[in-house]
Amino acid sequence: MRGSTHTTADTHPPTRTLGHWIDGKPAESTSGRHAPVYNPATGAADKRVALASAEEVDGAVAAAKAAHATWRTSSLAARTAILFRYRALLDAHRDEIAALITAEHGKVHSDALGEVARGLEIVELACAIPEKLKGELSTQVSTRVDVASVRQPLGVVAGITPFNFPAMVPMWMFPVAIACGNTFILKPSEKDPSAALRLAELASEAGLPDGVLNLVQGDKVAVDRLLEHPDVAAVSFVGSTPIARYVQLKAVEHGKRVQALGGAKNHMLVLPDADLDFAADQAVNAAYGSAGERCMAVSVVVAVGDTGDALVRRIADRARALRIGPGDDPASEMGPLITREHRDKVASYVAGARAQGAEVVVDGTEYPAPAGHEDGFFLGVSLLDHVPVTADAYQDEIFGPVLCVVRAETYEEAVELINSSRWGNGTAIFTRDGGAARRFQLEVEAGMVGVNVPIPVPVGHHSFGGWKESLFGDLHVYGNDGVAFYTRGKVITTRWPDPADAGINLGFPSNS
Ligand code: NAD
């Protein structure tokens, strides 16, 4: 299935250019720079995306800054009325947005619909912003003195997002940010930019004032300008660990608040008392769903005690039966990978793992491309057993349909392995033992933990974020942390004096 040097993209130049969305309307790029946007199922690039210059970013920031003056003082009722309309519009366009995701990312339609649904949760959270921004009041802290703590917006804030959730991850950010009274610049992934562009258009259709939500297409040039721009107060980033680390350092250097979510290597621990059929189902879903291109994908199963052989057999049977094909075919359970280069890199880990001592139980590199899609970026699923922890397949985030199995003698050994990982995004335990599950919750070093739940992505009113090299910064995204990130506290101490209080007193104010 590999080895083809010819690509449809070479023979069919792009017919459509995707531009920016600035100040409530489309904005054509003036940079003269573009990147191809592929349909991973066909390998064709019939679209291209603009790559903004620093000056174009400046234009978007200026629009956002101008809009902030009135948006920050708009009533909560006015903001939530727009957000409720936005929610209804997104709901009505679920299918269309999911189709855009499938056409550029490759994931199957049902998975893309799931992504839109999880993004909608955050719009629903934003609809509840009056509840989240209620603040605190203490009356009579001193005689005739009250203290109120309120939270106010930061100003212009930016979001930089990855390819793997082209609608959901932007929706983790901008609905909360704008509900809090900020204006927003979104820089989506240049690999699959159409879904985010549609989200911005629909926000305007819902009545969001011009300039409140802006979208700039681009690459490192746009990211760097956002990180340097003096009028950008805060940056949310989601992507790979090296870029997350870079974004955090550069944003801090320029005096910005930053949350930068990075990569992951999520371990699923299976204890001997677990229901092995259930665990195998869940491992397959979580390892190979979305072709493994999820930051919460399970990429390592840690089989404890004598579960290994029986579990691997069950996973292998299920993995071999998966139907791989174009995402818009309802029969497909898994689609292609995002680019040809990424597909080939993922495939190279399978051969590498074999050379480094792993047993290749299922070899996805031998899977034939679906008929009629020979130029698509398809790869079968791979299952690697007895993977040495020194192997690259264990050490690196592969971000593809490759599941590693490692064996551990005891629960303690398994937890020590998980805790020695440089990442700490999500993890899960599969067991029937409540005591072991409770101990795992307390001991494991990861930001999101599942008990018999392989992909524990928190619901919208909780917050999403990892530990260690999976998150640079302090606050997680959405939920209460999201509201805290996009606002700053102000404490107001008020006295309405009684005429009897008059008089000079140079002493330090004390409470009485
Ligand atoms: P990426 O880091 O390559 O790109 C993310 C964003 O950064 C994109 O908008 C891209 O244009 C920009 N970018 C890329 N290179 C840059 C550079 N040198 N300087 C400045 N900006 C740059 O990530 P990706 O390949 O799009 O997404 C996959 C990665 O994202 C995986 O590592 C995955 O684990 C991670 N991810 C993490 C989470 C999470 O919540 N922790 C969620 C989704 C994805």
UniProtKB/TrEMBL annotation:
Amino acid composition bias (Polar residues), ranges on this chain? 1-10
Q: Which residues form a coiled coil?
A: none
Entry EC number(s): 1.2.1.27
Q: What class of enzyme is it?
A: oxidoreductase
Q: Does the keyword Transferase apply?
A: no
Q: Which domain of life is it from?
A: Bacteria
Q: Which UniProt keywords apply?
A: NAD, Oxidoreductase
Please list the residue ranges annotated as the Aldehyde dehydrogenase domain. 29-491
**Pfam families to which the protein is assigned, alphabetical:** Aldedh (PF00171)
Q: Where is this region: Disordered?
A: 1-38
Alphabetical list of CDD domains matching this protein: ALDH_F6_MMSDH
| A single GO molecular function term of this UniProt record | methylmalonate-semialdehyde dehydrogenase (acylating, NAD) activity
Q: Does the keyword Signal apply?
A: no
Instruction: List this protein's GO terms for biological process.
Output: L-valine catabolic process; thymine catabolic process
Name-wise, this protein is: methylmalonate-semialdehyde dehydrogenase (CoA acylating)
What is the species listed in this Swiss-Prot or TrEMBL entry? Answer: Streptomyces alkaliterrae
